[in-house]
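Quick one, tokens below:
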């Protein structure tokens, strides 16, 4: 699917997600709309995007959808959601492909979704805050070391659990999607490369056709916006 086809008028209603008007990461797919795009691609659901400027994100019209003035939001008919975990869970619950049919396996996949967002991601986001906002502080290096060691602890546990398996629990699921997208934020830090099985895990997920379609769509969108 191309971005043009997603944005074209269609007789069939399609979900709409909000995205950055301009890419803060140069189209590397690190913004959280990537998770939603990827999930929609995995289940074969076409969608539209509505780009927003940073100022528009803070206006009342958008805050009616996202009370914290961020992206993405997800609109499907009368339903509006604003947390990526909830959005991906909703997509996975209403389409085949991201959650197992077996009740116990399904619960475990959902468990990994929560672990990605609640256990693994916070220290990774903290690292980004340290790098972007605290670099000029005299305690920057010490703080970065503390945060990196905290991340290493989480990666050690995750690496041990994954072992030599292809995915976290059987087939690829929404749990893997969320976990991989969180781990991708460590790109360039060197931390992920300390754990070869996790690095390979991320590479396997990034090689999935649905991931490539989602990645290419957001990159092409930003490239065309910049060219315009």
């Amino acid at each position: 699917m191309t971005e043009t086809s997603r944005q074209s008028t269609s007789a069939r209603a399609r979900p709409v997600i909000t995205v950055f008007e301009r890419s803060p990461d140069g189209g590397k797919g690190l913004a959280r709309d990537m998770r939603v795009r990827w999930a929609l691609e995995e289940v074969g659901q076409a969608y539209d995007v509505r780009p927003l400027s940073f100022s528009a994100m803070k206006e009342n019209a958008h805050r009616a959808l996202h009370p914290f003035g961020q992206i993405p939001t997800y609109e499907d008919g009368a339903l509006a959601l604003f947390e990526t975990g909830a959005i991906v869970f909703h997509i996975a619950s209403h389409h085949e492909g991201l959650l197992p049919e077996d009740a116990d396996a399904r619960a475990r996949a959902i468990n990994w979704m929560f672990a990605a967002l609640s256990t693994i991601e916070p220290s990774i986001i903290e690292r980004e805050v340290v790098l972007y906002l605290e670099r000029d502080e005299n305690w920057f290096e010490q703080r970065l070391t503390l945060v990196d060691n905290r991340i290493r602890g989480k990666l050690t546990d995750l690496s041990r659990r994954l072992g030599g398996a292809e995915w976290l629990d059987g087939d690829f699921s929404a749990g893997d999607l969320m976990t991989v997208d969180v781990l991708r934020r460590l790109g360039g830090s060197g931390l992920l490369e300390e754990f070869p099985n996790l690095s390979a895990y991320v590479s396997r997920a990034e090689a999935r056709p649905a991931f490539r379609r989602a990645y290419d769509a957001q990159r092409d969108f930003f490239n065309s916006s910049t060219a315009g």
